[in-house]
Amino acid sequence: MAENMREVHMPAQPAGPMTGEQKLSMVKQQVTTQMLKAVRDTEKAIDNELESLDNLKKSDLENIRRRRMIELKKKAAKMQEWRHKGHGTYAELADEKQWFGEIKQSERTITLFYRNTTNESDKYTQILDKHICKLAPKHMETSLLRFIKINAEKSPYLCQKLNIVLLPTILCTKDNFTHGIIKF
Fold this sequence. Notes:
By secondary structure, the chain is of the alpha/beta class. The protein contains 5 helices and 5 strands, in the order H-H-E-H-E-H-E-H-E-E. The chain has helices at 20-54, 58-85, 96-105, 120-138, 156-161, and strands at 90-93, 108-114, 145-151, 169-174, 177-183. Strands 1-3-2-4-5 form a 5-stranded mixed beta sheet. A hairpin with a 2-residue loop joins strand 4 (169-174) and strand 5. The relative contact order is 0.11. The model has no long low-confidence stretch (mean pLDDT 84).
């Protein structure tokens, strides 16, 4: 395939000043040359990879299979550990002590602070609650993410320290530190 590609050579610089058309033509030729070089390099790399795959021996394939099995077993063990820690679920915590335990146990958390009322904020809480319930199972293995909710009235110390005054509020933590707060 490389034999069919035409080599592009740069023309000699004209003696006088260049016109706009000549400059454009020169730039086009330079771009074409660079693109052809990139295509050749990529094609060569792909050909080398294909050749190495064609020359694999049975023992090489067994080594690849063995490494893949080890990777899959590690991933399955990690998924089991995450399930055990509650990842992929959306749970309500009873108090601040539980919240601090969850934060220490998980690398990243999303916490919904809410209050049981019958006013406008309760509608937003219900909407957020519904969407977080859908999100939690989809993000089980996303960087050790844990979805939890806590009643703000049962955790006044936490709300005061985190300056949570509007409800509902979503708090994101990463490595035991507040990473972001979304107030509604």
